[in-house]
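The following block was generated as part of the benchmark described in Methods. Ligand: 5-hydroxymethyl-3,4-dihydroxypiperidine.
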Amino acid sequence: MAQQSPDTDLEAHVLKFPEDFTWGAATSAFQIEGSPRADGKSPSIWDTFCATPGRISDASSGDVACDHYVRYLDDVSLLSALGMASYRFSIAWTRVKPGGVGPTNPKGLDFYDRLVDALLAEGITPMPTLYHWDLPQVLDDRGGWLDRSTAEAFADYAEAAVTRLGDRVGTWTTLNEPFVSANHGYVTGEHAPGHTSLAEGFAAGHHLLLAHGLAAERIRSLAPDARLAIVLNFTPQQAASSSDADLQAASLQSDLENRWYADPLNGLGYPTSGFDHYGWDGSQIGDGDLDLISAPLDLLGVNYYTRQLVSADPAYAQPGHTPRNTMGWEIHPESLGQLMRTLWDRYSFPSYMITENGAPMPDLNRSEGRVDDDDRTAYIRDHLTELHGAIQDGCPIEGYLVWSFMDNFEWAEGYVPRFGVVEVDYETQTRTPKQSALWFRDVARTNQVVLEPERLTYRGRP
Ligand code: IFM
């Protein structure tokens, strides 16, 4: 339980955050940039995936997306107007090294150079992520994340980005959500490159972590003063009952989703269930790999959206009465607070940031420059409340970035789910801050959350 302290004004229901707390927003390259062939960019696995019939539910692509490659200056102005102190974006490997390996494309880097300068001119801290799922297609043609050489190529690409932008970037993030890259891309097939093999998932996962380790080593030597981070997603797995079978099922699932990457990053090695339950032979792990992977980091980025109830019974149905977002994910803010305490207890990361949290929600009454999205505001408020409790308990959480700055391409779901605090009209590319963005702006400006539970409750899916 959160302890009462001077930072919690219970009378006024005001939650004050630490003075140096960072507020911001996040996006990724493929989801917003568009301009897939501009200035020498090559296709990524997501361009190929979108062009494959049946892969994207609304048959859309990232060809235009939010046209951010063209409109980035307006977007930076909007970030500033909304009080965002930090902006997490990703760099497209295919712009920087169109061949995956080999020559660097200066024009591709020019875009991120301009973006970083524009952010800094507005007083916004740039937080680039080097890999947010858009592997160069040319590397997938040679085996992609199943091939160890992709990890080595990633370190060379990281070097090119850091060499160009390192004088202005204070925190480098290597990967976004390697679990999703490996699991959705190689095991379930719902993401690019669309493979369906558990064994491939383990191989891809190891090569992703190796890519992180090799790039981390390179970044440390090129930018010794920069902070180094990785972003992992966590879905707390809770047993559906207290039966031994359900507890064991939840623990096994948690090994795969929550501990598979965080454990080796902390020198704990891969969870043993990977070998003795799931049957991975570990043949991809080379001498010294685990040492590279466990080199100390400065920051863990935590992406949290929902929890999962796990049962050993294949016929188990998730409870229907809990609030859910428009994609059907359960809204469970308490699990964020618990997650942060668990991470702080188990691992040795010196600092944490929520690098993604948000929800696709009903956006109502879209008219005259106003979009009502009370459900989204309530979601963010309730997660911030839990986060505040974890901070009160001593968790070193330095910031919160909302996912997402604006509506964008939600991967296999196309443009239907809208995660943005800013609405994007894809016909006109008009941006309209939703009511949640205005609420969040006030939170960022005042560094506090004013609780008004009676005003905002979840209406639920339309
Ligand atoms: O849109 C994604 C993002 O790219 C990675 N984290 C989860 C988000 C919502 O699904």
